[in-house]
Amino acid sequence: MTSSDMVVCTLCYDEGVSKDASAVTWCTECEGFLCIDCERHHQKSKMSKDHKTISSEVYKKLPKCMQETKSQCRDHKNKFELYCSFHACPCCVQCVTDKHLKCQDIKPLSDILREIKSSASVQLLEKDLTDVKGNFEETISYLKNRMNTSNIQKTKAAEKIRFIKTSIDDFLTKIEQEMLADLETKHSKLDLKMNRLLQQLEHQANQIDKWLSGFSEMTRFATELQMYVGLLEIEKVTSEADKYIEDLRNGKHLDENNLEVTITSSLQSILKDVKALGKVDINSSQSSLRIKAGRKDQAQDLVRLVPRIEEIKPTILRTLIIPKGMDIANVFACIILPDGRFIILDNHDVDGQLLLFSNDGMFIRQVSTFPGESYDACFVKNNTVAVLFGSSNKITLVDIEMNEITKKLNFQVSVVQ
User: Fold this and answer.
1) Of 110, 189, 260, 405, which has the fewest Cβ atoms less than 10 A away?
2) What is the DSSP string of 166-216?
3) pLDDT tens digit sequence for 62-104
4) How many CA atoms lie within 13 A of 259 on its CB side?
């Protein structure tokens, strides 16, 4: 056992005998730790031999709130003897005087704690703890599954992103190759056409060059007839050459054919309009987790608000005083009005009456009389009392301040088999 785990004997520490005497037991009534020697004396003492003790190891396993709960009031150093149901706390006699004078429901603490360990609340709360633990386990398992699902979703999303990127790359490579092939075809066709024309022009130019290179010899050594024939031929050759060049120009053979590339506008807009491959969203939906619902107001189960039948001790709170000479046969109903006054329904053989009494039990007046046998009465609202006449299936509403019947209602009784 480490020094931090060791519990010191309360008596030895308080008496200054030893500050490191290791405690082995805890006395639930003395509320203190005892070492081996102190426990021996504790068991022999007449005042404490019947005290219940538990091992210090067991005590340390109790929840902190239980370890901190003492049987004495911290403020007044008196033993708790009472319990305030309104504040849900134990009280000493001085606490009631200081803090609970206006509290209506003060009970003996012994009544609250009687058979507490064997009460149904213990089993219910143990079940509640089990259910809550199960709910936490279910929730933790659910959350771990959600985390695994999220990881799987991330992997699939990354694969989708890479797939679309690869697809775009493959598509661009394909149309690039097609366009380069088209460029090569058109360039080859244009190049072939210009090469043929170039060969023709070079041939024509060579012919003209031959005439031009021999022109000086022709003028020096040719006879006049030869010169005449030669000039006619030169005139013909130059005329045909001019016509050939003119035909080339007019036939658009010498037009400037330029290779140009036009990129599809939708493809060009990618660089301008497309800012991302897509977007990543977190879409929320209602949780599929199903947990057990806890009981409401569980703490109230520990405090028994309804007394047992043997604990009920009725006392007379008010006596209604009937004036002398007033004939009262059978009281079928007694109503306590919101202001504390009383209404009595007195039923005779052939008629009934409503009688009003003050909140101190003194007779005030007769409110109303009714022909027929009345069965019951109840307060409705404001100054209205309802009187039931069972034999005639009627309800009469009476204003007790105006002393008059305000309404009569008929009803039917249906028997469902």
Assistant:
1) 260
2) HHHHHHHHHHHHHHHHHHHHHHHHHHHHHHHHHHHHHHHHHHHHHHHHTHH
3) 888 888 888 888 888 888 899 988 888 899 999 988 888 888 7
4) 12
